[in-house]
């Protein structure tokens, strides 16, 4: 079974993590100025903060500069400093503003491609970059997943109908920092099945959040989500998982939404990752369509999802993309 982070394939053909550092808009490549944590910077190199200055005349001139730290158990997990957290929080606010804008316009009769246009233009207007666009070939600026689509629905001519459910998944890059969140919405008046799966998916995220505190593990998060969702007669998708985020679209660790208590890496302050359980009304099996992106439930049942970007704090957690659950 191939596990993917956030639905995107987490590993490339060499088995190594793949981190994009550019995207495209209207045929023009836009370089993303990302802080390259963990890389030794020489005094005359460009500063990794993206200022355009030499390192010695920017961040390297401060003897009190907060140095990046890594996870004591897994060095590849890069912990975030206060400055990083502020940057991710700002990106997260843009993600929330984007979702609010979309929600205010949703109605039967719209196409998912219209939603993509809104998100794309809104993101650029706010001096940010839509992270999905051209990420490993993804052709649009947002994911729109309707009814039986679990994730990575590609916006297009599909028309939203009365009673549909729609997940809108937004990831923005602002000043080199990434934030990621999604919500599932009702289009018009939902039926009882739609109401149930959306309610279970929303509560599944809440259950996972109760496990986020220093000393717990990523396995505790997955265990709580799986226990709750299955108690409601629903299933948890296995093929897609949450992921670290902030410096890049997908970072370690993977955050499964199923599993055993005590499994996986320990949570420590400064970790930032997504929790994004995908919950099906039927079985957890899925099929990837010919476009190589769109994942649908194998049995045709409804699927819903809620996602937030989460910071582990000294006392517990903070959402960097907070919205009511």
Topology:
Blueprint: E1 4-5, E2 8-9, E3 22-25, E4 28-31, E5 69-70, E6 78-79, H1 82-105, H2 112-125, E7 129-130, E8 143-146, E9 149-151, E10 165-174, E11 177-186, H3 192-209, H4 218-231, E12 235-236, E13 240-244, E14 251-255, E15 272-275, E16 278-280, E17 286-288, E18 295-297, E19 303-305, E20 308-312, E21 317-319
Parallel strand pairs: 1-13
Antiparallel strand pairs: 1-2, 3-4, 5-6, 7-10, 8-10, 9-18, 10-11, 12-16, 13-14, 15-20, 16-19, 17-18, 20-21
Helix pairs in contact: 1-2, 3-4
In short:
The protein has 325 residues and is an alpha+beta fold. It has 4 helices and 21 strands.
Task: Name a few traits of the molecule.
325 residues; alpha+beta; four-stranded mixed beta sheet; 4 helices; globular
Give an overview of the whole structure.
- With 325 residues, the chain is of the alpha+beta class.
- The protein is built from four helices and 21 strands.
- It has helices at 82-105, 112-125, 192-209, 218-231; strands at 4-5, 8-9, 22-25, 28-31, 69-70, 78-79, 129-130, 143-146, 149-151, 165-174, 177-186, 235-236, 240-244, 251-255, 272-275, 278-280, 286-288, 295-297, 303-305, 308-312, 317-319.
- The strands form seven sheets. The chain has a four-stranded mixed sheet with strand order 2-1-13-14. Strands 7, 8, 10 and 11 form a four-stranded antiparallel sheet that branches.
- A hairpin with a 6-residue loop joins strand 13 and strand 14 (251-255).
- Helix 1 packs across helix 2.
- It is globular.
- Mean pLDDT is 87; it is low at 7-39.
